[in-house]
Amino acid sequence: MELTQEHDLLQRLADLKVKSSVLEVQEVDREAMTKKTVQLINAQDDNITRLTCDPIKILDQAGFEADEISESPVDFDSVMQELNDRLVRAGVIPGHPLFLGFIPSGQGTYPSALGGFLPAAFNTYSVIHLESPAAVQMENRLIQWVADLFGYPAGHAGNISSGGSLATLTALAVSRDSRRLKAAHFHRCVIYCSEFTHYAVQKGLGAVGMREAVLRKTPVDTSFKMTAAALEKQIKEDKEAGLLPFLVVATVGTTLTGSVDPVDDIADVCERHQLWLHVDAAYGGFFALCDDMKQLFVGVERSDSIVVNPHKGLFISSGVGVLVVKDGGKLQQTCSLQQTPSVFEGMQFFSAEHLSPCELSFELTRSFRGAQMWLPLKVFGVGVFRAALEEKLLLARYFYRKLKETGEFELPLEPELSVVLFRATAPPGVDINNFNQQLLNDLNSDGKVFMTPAVLGDQYYLRVCILCFRTHMEHMDLCFSLIREKRGHLWGSFQSNA
Amino acid sequence: MELTQEHDLLQRLADLKVKSSVLEVQEVDREAMTKKTVQLINAQDDNITRLTCDPIKILDQAGFEADEISESPVDFDSVMQELNDRLVRAGVIPGHPLFLGFIPSGQGTYPSALGGFLPAAFNTYSVIHLESPAAVQMENRLIQWVADLFGYPAGHAGNISSGGSLATLTALAVSRDSRRLKAAHFHRCVIYCSEFTHYAVQKGLGAVGMREAVLRKTPVDTSFKMTAAALEKQIKEDKEAGLLPFLVVATVGTTLTGSVDPVDDIADVCERHQLWLHVDAAYGGFFALCDDMKQLFVGVERSDSIVVNPHKGLFISSGVGVLVVKDGGKLQQTCSLQQTPSVFEGMQFFSAEHLSPCELSFELTRSFRGAQMWLPLKVFGVGVFRAALEEKLLLARYFYRKLKETGEFELPLEPELSVVLFRATAPPGVDINNFNQQLLNDLNSDGKVFMTPAVLGDQYYLRVCILCFRTHMEHMDLCFSLIREKRGHLWGSFQSNA
After folding, report:
1. A 98-137: CB under 8 A from B
2. Residues A259-278: pLDDT tens digits?
3. Are B250 and B279 in contact (CB under 8 A)?
4. Rounded to whole angstroms, how far apart are CA atoms B498 and B491?
5. Which domains, and CATH codes, for chain A?
6. Which residues of chain A are within 8 Å of residue B130 when distances are taken between CB atoms?
7. ipTM of the complex
8. What CA–CA distance (Å, rounded) separates B299 from B246?
């Protein structure tokens, strides 16, 4: 690229402009590309919404090696065809009404998808107020709405992360810093949770440098909830042993059992011992929209930080979690640079009036995630979400009752939220764990439904999580029939072998 | 919600199904919604691509308070109108060809935007191989492609993060863990960088629990590059003082000056002292695609980890960073759970054959970011990016020469990549820093161009970063004319005041 002659340089620049101008896709091509994309989306949704749809899960995952990245362009239709053949035709379809296997990570209502599209096209830079004041204010408004939902007073601050793990990691760092803990004491620090606390906490501790800290799993009651008394006993013992209790993680809706820890009682303990109370409401948080559920959320307003996942309870596309810290200054202290390196000082276009997201999270540039949450909330209104969440709660009770009435299943827990645990009684002489493991395999084998297990103590249960906006009564009826049918077959096969 | 009667429950479920079914937007509405969205995008791009476009930056940011979240739905067109009025009509337009102020965080080529749309609509769950094998394999293929670009051998592993900060945070954690550093020793640990190393490193250190560690800024040469000799001297002194040197961050393309640290020399030092070498190529990395630039990347293949931002050098929409760690096992060791809590064991659908992204990053659920990178690379082919990047390099040289030829500007550094620093000479008796601060204000005031400063030592420079795919020779000509014009006016005003 030694271009000594001015003429050479101008010629080369003219050539390169022509070559690189391909990146500016023309309007007519955009229309064709968009049309093709929407066709794929519609075809997929057609599949899903028909009850006689394609399997929820294709088990044969061979032959899905991704294509190479090549020097030359590939026709857009071929690229889309490849995506269609591969993305859609293998794996699990998360938007399916019988996706009951994990707490669904969003089902992608259409406006949410457009909320992924529009800012990606505008390339909205949503992390500095100066650059995109509207995006920042929209995200702040969403955080305010979440804070209001849980009764946080003014003075809070938060951020919109990629999901619960990153939000939890940040909450851990803030709680760590709020105590001005020295690294030399990390190994003496104690974090309290239960066996059912999500492993995002353990993962986050590794990230924030506290792998050596003590992660204390306090006993749960028969509903798999933390007990405040056991927690307090443990804290006292730890203090006497010279350890440094500093953080309690309470869960509003454990992913495995749907249990809600007694937050108010735990808040009493935290208050007495001056511990940071973090509430993991990633799964259960948005059930606070349902009037009848208010009692489950008593005490959440007393916590120091909350994580809630719109891509779960608001049925939106994956990649949107919200962290709110009651004392916003503490979040800023952890995330903002205490001292900007002097050479970058001229680059800090921050305003005192409007805090920017990059001062309140560990991320600098990132996508304008708020749009995926903003569009559906505006377009549908909060009332629809309230109704959909109430429906999920009632579906769980409905399904629980139906299973119970048959007398063929053991149900360890009346559902508080939208998770139902059950296991089939086993034929005489057959190990109940093996029987249910086999039952789960049979249920998942033909791809009509997707469920996961929960191993409680040494007991193996099946687990159904109802949180897809497409799941209605008829789907739970179908799920129920499948379970009874497979159970019947399995029971029969054991008897014919006996 | 006390529903004792079976009949009540069924009736309530039927009602709620009707209410919540609104979330399943029908095909005809989707078409209308998509059309409206694309109209907005096209209108914005029309604005941008005309040279007589709307200002790049609207300074009056008052009155952009975001609307409330309301109980009732808002008509889609009104929501979009609000977005249009607010997002587009305030702040800085990052896709503008005269957005020269920051290393552009992506300009959002259209296929990249579709790559934000499609997976959000499919709600592709890209972090566990079992759930979405094709998405995982596509992301792994992209990581492989990046690793190949920098000459990493087999055995590496990586992840696609939201951007450079999260990728850097993760690299710091991996380097920390690779040395099995105890928290008790964090305050004795030393990280080496230069004054020009991006503050993401300082921010990340706070996140990973190492705020107490020593962040040593070693001297730079006259091109603002780290010097291996000064680095080694400092390491020796620190070792003698009983400190624990463990990590060096070298930068391939500092954001402030576009300088490339001498990675090969630094790698020698790291090898001799057994330090982790992390290469921050967030801005400069993809220039490795240009054949003539190979010499700048010598030694990068000897590093232990690399961060590169596709949303910079690949001109794609914000929110896509790539981390690659040479010894993939180390990344997994830091990010994967060492021991899964027993109750969650049944939930771990991991395969030994295919590592899942959630085992190689701190994030669990997140969006399928790979699509924003995959689509443009496939649709345009690598060749176009190569041409576009070469164009940016030549534009920087072209612009540098033009400024230099006038004799009216001081240029402290011949551009190596696509950043150009300059300042106007000041009229006699006028402080050169004040003069240039005023010049920058004047340039940014009418929104025709957007630039930022760089304060080097106590000298104030203006800074132009060329990395938008829309920036061509005519834009640099326009930028040049604006600078000369404003400089002339400013000079005149000082003389008339004198």
Report:
1. 102, 105-125, 129-135, 137
2. 999 999 999 999 999 999 99
3. yes
4. 11
5. 50-64+75-93 (no CATH), 116-380 (3.40.640.10), 383-497 (3.90.1150.10)
6. 61, 91-92
7. 0.95
8. 19
